[in-house]
Request: fold
Amino acid sequence: YGHDTVQSWRRSLRDKPPPLDETHPHWLPPPAPTTESLLDCQKRVVAAFNEYIAPSMFDEEDLPTPPERRAVVVVAHSNTIRSLMAAFDEVPDELVPKLYVPNSVPILYRFD
Reply:
């Protein structure tokens, strides 16, 4: 496919590699995706953030720490973090390839 094509699959928001089929050694049956762009990943990750993480930050009552003092740590693959950063910061599609998530370096977000 070539270096530029593979880089586009890896870094862009919307590009994705060709789908896997049953003959590929890493193929998994549905509901596993056969191919995925960062945008596809972002949709799943933002939905999970909104359903599971955000409520523990803001909505859940009767926790020992009040919402204004809560801290949540999200540990994930760099593409997962990159997709969250692109969504939180409303990064335009053309700038998403420039988002870089360094290994083992905390990235802090504060939410109101």
